[in-house]
Design goal:
282 residues, mainly alpha, 50% helix, 0% strand
């Protein structure tokens, strides 16, 4: 219901012919390129765009071309991590968030699933096994926080539907109790509920839970979040996270929030959708 609102149409109008939006991961700082490809895809996904939409098809085709070597993202190479591995990880994640029909992206997912499965042998995380498996599969030792510490948006997103039940549940326990949460998404322990519901911190907390809710066996482990959210419902049956959560990423979904009822509708839509997912996980 939000696909034809002002924000997504503005984003689509900035898409280049080859499917990208300028830089992929790193903002250029130029007013001529006010959004990255990642930011564009994130915002379009939040507003209901799927692989059925032309703009997403073009973006996935572009990312696949980069992944298989027919094109290259224009970002400046980062020297403090394994750049090629990180780029392939980012590309595979964003392709697979829209489609599992790209073999190159599925291959990257399989590689990371093998690394994580080795790291969680026996049901608990072993960092030495993680390093060893990473080196065996990718041919180098991991370098840079986003690769040494896998509790990052990219790996957690990529591994959905890639792990067996035992590994997935062990991973879920580890991530929920991780002191600094999920890198890029939420920087606190997810087992601890936010102190203030009407805050951007709570919105980012929901983003972390939304990410974890995509796992098949997450329901029991995330039930405490469902109970928390149900207890915050207003007497009118809706939720309101307040004006401060308007960050142009997760909110707003509608064109603007000048009316409280519009803000409530957006907050209620997001939370109702999450609760629906949590109740339906098998």
């Amino acid at each position: 219901m939000h696909k034809d609102t002002r924000w997504p149409q503005q984003i689509i109008s900035m898409q280049e012919k080859d499917g990208k939006w300028g830089f992929f991961h790193t903002p250029s700082g130029s007013s001529r390129r006010p959004i990255t490809t990642e930011q564009a895809l994130w915002r379009l996904e939040r507003r209901g765009y799927t692989i059925e939409d032309i703009c997403i098809q073009k973006a996935c085709s572009y990312m696949n071309n980069c992944l298989v070597g027919r094109a290259e993202i224009p970002d400046r190479r980062e020297k403090l991590l394994d750049w090629e591995i990180f780029v392939s990880l980012m590309l595979a994640v964003w392709i697979r968030r829209f489609s599992d029909g790209y073999p190159a992206a599925n291959k990257v997912a399989g590689q990371w699933a093998a690394v994580i499965s080795s790291a969680f042998q026996g049901g608990v995380y072993h960092h030495k096994e993680y390093i060893s498996a990473y080196q065996d599969i990718f041919g180098v030792k991991p370098m840079g926080r986003r690769l040494i510490d896998f509790t990052c948006f990219y790996q957690i997103s990529l591994l959905v539907n890639c792990l067996d039940r035992r590994t997935e549940e062990a991973l879920m326990d580890y991530v929920l109790d991780k002191e600094d949460g999920i890198y890029y998404i939420y920087s606190e322990r997810i087992l601890f509920l936010p102190k203030v519901f009407e805050s951007r911190q709570a919105s980012r907390y929901l983003a972390a839970v939304e990410l974890l809710s995509k796992y098949r066996y997450a329901a029991d482990k995330l039930q405490f979040v469902a109970d928390w959210l149900n207890g915050l419902k207003k007497e009118n049956g809706k939720w309101d996270m307040g004006k401060s959560v308007n960050d142009k990423v997760y909110f707003p979904l509608s064109n603007d929030w000048r009316k409280q009822e519009t803000r409530e509708a957006d907050c209620t839509e997001r939370i109702s959708s999450l609760l629906s997912v949590l109740s339906g996980i098998q």
